[in-house]
TrEMBL record:
A motif (HXTX 2) lies at residues 123-126. Its EC number is 3.1.4.58. The keyword Ligase applies. Keywords: Hydrolase, Ligase. It catalyses: a 3'-end 2',3'-cyclophospho-ribonucleotide-RNA + H2O = a 3'-end 2'-phospho-ribonucleotide-RNA + H(+). This is RNA 2',3'-cyclic phosphodiesterase. The active site is at 42 (proton donor), 123 (proton acceptor).
Amino acid sequence: MSIKSLRLFFGLPLPHRQAAAINVWRNGLTLGGRPVDKRNLHLTLVFLGSQPVERLDELQRLAGQIRGKGFELKLDRLEVGRHGLVSLGSSQPPEALIQLAGELHDSLRAAGYPLEERAFWPHLTLARQCRTHPVLDSLPDFAWTAERFVLFHSTSDEQGGVYRPLFHWPLPVPD
């Protein structure tokens, strides 16, 4: 059996230390939903959905043309969305993040990829299908320097869904 399509998205990976800290903090909340596995914590830039395997070379080429810069990303807001989605957001998303997502989106759209029309919403999903609003003892305060973006493949293993990095591109950090 050969694989014909892959479920793909571009995103920002978390350093292991930040993923561990966010996981511990999130586990201290009473969410009652389905928590995102620590290994899958990320910030989505552009969701591509199911794409033919043959387009991977084109995706690498398009992403390689992006000239984003590294930036400090601070997640300092807990957000509760529709359908019980609980996530971390930023009270002041860095302009470099908005530009990176916008440039990726524009490049992919120009190449004929069907993308969602909604505005970019920078967030890191903590859990889905939560039935209660979490009570906070302290506000979230997580930060890291985004130094690369990644093309992820969404698949599954015996433990559930897993996001596997396929390719990555540097985001040079300004001096």
